[in-house]
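Purpose: get a first structural picture of the assembly so the mutagenesis plan has something to point at.
Setup: two entries, given in the order below. No constraints added.
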Amino acid sequence: MLFLVTSFLFTSCIEEPEAPKIQTVENDQLVKIKAWFEENKTKLRLPERGSNFRSESQELILPFFEKEPDWDKFHHYYFPDGREVFEVSLENATKYFPKSFLDSFPDQDASKFIVQNIMFIKDVASDRFDPLIARYYPGDEYSKSKMKKIFFSGINEYWSGRIDIFTYDEHHFVGFEVFESEIKKSIRYGVNNNLNSRIAGDCQVYTREVVWVSNEPGDPEDDPYGYGTTYHSLTITEVSCTGSMGENPPQGTIYIDGDPYYEFGNGEEGCPDCDYIIPVISDPGSIILNQLTNPCASGILKQLLKTSNIKSSVGHLNQMNEIVQLLNNANDFDFIVKNGDLANGTQREIVFNLSTGKNEVTINLNNAYLESATRLSIARTILHESIHAYLLYVGCAPQDEGIFYNVMMNYAYSEGLIMNDIHHGLMSQFVDAIGYSLNEWNSKYGGANSIPRGYFDDIAWGGLSAKSFINETGQYVWYPSFNVLITSESERIRIHNNIVHELKNDEYAKSDPC
Amino acid sequence: MLKVILVNLIFFGMTETQLESSKEYELINYLVCEKDDSVFIDERFISWNEVGYHSYNEINVINMKLDREFYEDHKQQIDQIINPTIQQKVEPDFIKCKVNLNRTISFSPKKTIYSYSYPMLMRGEDQKLYGVIIERRTFEIDNYSKIKVFKKLKDSWELVYENLISFS
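Result (structure tokens, whole complex):
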């Protein structure tokens, strides 16, 4: 016999029936890994070694520290070959980073935005979970804003920076230089006699000074900038290969006192009988957010994402602190954007929480809309939908414990509204920010120079103006906030008409077609 | 028109008479005919697949215990509804009230348009018939979609569940 007979008027963050089971399985597995780690962590060492940061054997070995994973913060995924990986946060541990990274963010506390995780990689042949340490260093401001959710198989597609993999006992294993999620170089340190020359494939061998920094306080002479950090410098041989693999598989090299201990593909894959088996790793994987096949729309999305336009606008506005923070945080949230053939007359939609049981948000843009609208209209739509996406995320995010969502739900219920209405009511507070962002975007990428500032504010009301039209009276029914904030009916109609001009790219549109 | 009907008949594996009197069109008629005269009904069906529903189990949003015999009897038809090879359209001849059909793909000023998925029928272990359908309301650049579940009554349908699944 059946179930509930209740009608829900609202979007739901309630997990699908399968989701709690998945969560339970993950937690059970994590408990198992934790137990294995606690039992084995004192044995997870490579053979005897010399001091750290030493040059003579061409090894980069950071000082070992006891790892205390934060088991509540983890990512669960699989390598392409099917091996299961749990990547757990080491957020509270000492941070190490290349000095070159510090140079990219002068006068900033770099340790605040480095991510340091421990990857537990399941051995297919046995019940063990050999760890590696992953360190992520952003290369630019956009990438810095995308650090909170980064993991080895989940690099944001526009993320640039460096990823370094170390063994559990801090031998440098392999590094990757990444530009917009593509691996531009892979880097190994170690003994090589072909110094300063090109070797097999696209690999180059250098000797160079490598400076690593930790946020542990050191002697004043080791801390020239007075940041409370310690500098460690060594001159070392670096093999840098173009792309992910180069001619020889460079998925990690370990020398022990100058002798090769592990080199993937060369029969030197360590010792299988040892207590610590260095696992083979795949290349870092990326999450493709921009799935737009329309090149013009794809370019606009990339421009908006890379310039973090919403974020850059709020500092110039006299907004409430909560709104500023909301928009700042919105830049941290990822969502998928794609295009397709939607129902007739539909320009775009935001789809959420379907069969996956995850709070994934997808923005769909209708092909017919992309083919007719101006670039300004499309930019406005993307900003509008990204705020929706973020409000959905905030409403469903576990860290919020559903408080924001419940507030919205209660208000919607009391007023007989659906979530769309609630979002649009809130978004009227963001119109200035969207207008400012559109103006900024247009000045950099839009190409239409003669558009007055106020026009962007008009366009920012797109999606927030009209709800319906009454044929009998010949009048629009406006969203309440639009009605309240724009007090004159002639102004409301003028603004709405401007939105439609850009949407249709008619003779009155001021921007260019896409 | 004949061509379109034939395509549909082949697609759903039903005769014209069967289709016209089908429970699916009964539900469509129930929804369409309760709407205001001024609204438009989109001639295209919303694709289940395109909005993220890929299987019969996913469409069972209220997680009811299904009559497996019903599913086996309609399996082929169900698969074709979820994964259509061609765009399916509403048959105006099977709509039993006056309806304004929307055929415009582009922006339609001042028009409210409703779109529907082809209904998915399920029989529960209680032997009651249930119809699951997506309904989308579009007004200019504003739209939202809900998935709705109806229970078949003697001469009508009873809404037993609805949930917002997308908006703009």
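Chain B touches chain A through 52 residues (CB under 8 Å).
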